[in-house]
Amino acid sequence: MTPEQKATYMRRCFQLARLGEGRVAPNPLVGCVIATDDGILSEGYHRQFGGAHAEVNALNALTPAGRSQLGDATVFVNLEPCSHYGKTPPCADRLIAEGVRRVVVCNTDPNPQVSGRGLRKLRDAGVQVEEGLLTSEGWELNRRFFTYHELKRPYITLKWAETADGYLDADDPKPIRISSDLTKALVHKLRATEQAILVGTRTLLKDNPSLHTRRYYGAPLTRLAIDRNGRAPLSSHLLDGSQPTFLFNSRRDDAPWVRLDFDGDVIQQLLQFLYDHRIQSLIVEGGAETLRRFIVRGLYDAVQVETGVYACGKGTQAPDVPLGTALRTACYDGHRMVSFRKMKQ
Ligand SMILES: NC(=O)c1ccc[n+]([C@@H]2O[C@H](COP(=O)([O-])OP(=O)(O)OC[C@H]3O[C@@H](n4cnc5c(N)ncnc54)[C@H](OP(=O)(O)O)[C@@H]3O)[C@@H](O)[C@H]2O)c1
Prior knowledge:
Layout: H1 3-18, E1 31-36, E2 39-45, H2 54-60, H3 64-68, E3 74-79, H4 91-97, E4 102-107, H5 117-124, E5 128-131, H6 135-141, H7 143-151, E6 155-162, E7 167-170, H8 181-193, E8 196-199, H9 201-207, E9 222-226, E10 245-249, E11 257-259, H10 266-276, E12 281-286, H11 288-296, E13 302-307, E14 315-317, E15 325-332, E16 335-341
Parallel strand pairs: 3-4, 4-5, 6-12, 6-13, 8-9, 8-12, 9-10, 10-11
Antiparallel strand pairs: 1-2, 1-3, 7-14, 13-16, 15-16
Helix pairs in contact: 4-5
Bound molecules: NADP nicotinamide-adenine-dinucleotide phosphate.
């Protein structure tokens, strides 16, 4: 099989894996392709948290004719096959039992207790294993999963909408509308792929946000707000019980309230709380002060900014963040949507 064919099959694994976005966390996104020099015999991906792994779905999808060619085939998978009993039996055992002779892997498992074990198990059984194909693309695909395990904190996306002249909000008591219906739906799409979303106290009290994903399908994300003195009124949308919610404060510790030490490092405690709750990704939605506190500490991985079509003249200025590597720039209804990754230090 040529290096180009191998890269193509691995990229097909990435495509398949992405279909599980918003459904498999805290598991990684994994796709699997079983192929020969002549083409793909079958494919699969991890569809749902707790469900079968990608390798098992690909093996189960083989036709009898495909299965008869398994000895000549190569199994491509973007994450090292597991070697332990979790919610499902080990994939490495299943590959060996099926008579697979060649496996190509992109990333190894970041968990030091597991890393390398699946590959060793395969090699010990005589399976030819190639690892490290397209690792940075694989890392990007599973950036939330890898950040969580490597840095022991969620992957952090700073996100805001600003007016054409750079304000998050005008100086009016009522919030202004910056997004269009279409860009709102796109924001809900972003929310549907992340696990939690945070707002600061003034946003909580002034905007009374609901932080839903109504305009896009997907699991409800966990809503978070900082409310040191527990000032959120009972009528707050965040207290409507509709989806998992935590309000960080200095007084109460009864759900949904979580007490933090506000004389200490609030962001660190908040990130530790998310780590302990296996939340691998966080959107910081604002306002400006909350975003700024993450920015000054370099505690973010990606930024998404929408620039609307109207100016407001004065108000809360949008944060200043060092430009990183631009990923996508798009325009919808005249609104500019820019997303970028943090510049490497
Ligand atoms: N356009 C957009 O995308 C967007 C998004 C969100 C909000 N907004 C607008 O932004 C405005 C509010 O922004 P803002 O900058 O005034 O306020 P904010 O960021 O919503 O809230 C800031 C307050 O939250 C608390 N806080 C935040 N981070 C903290 C930390 N790490 N540790 C301890 N406390 C922390 C502090 O409260 P204490 O005072 O208790 O210390 C701080 O003063 C509103 O007008 C809202 O409509 C716009």
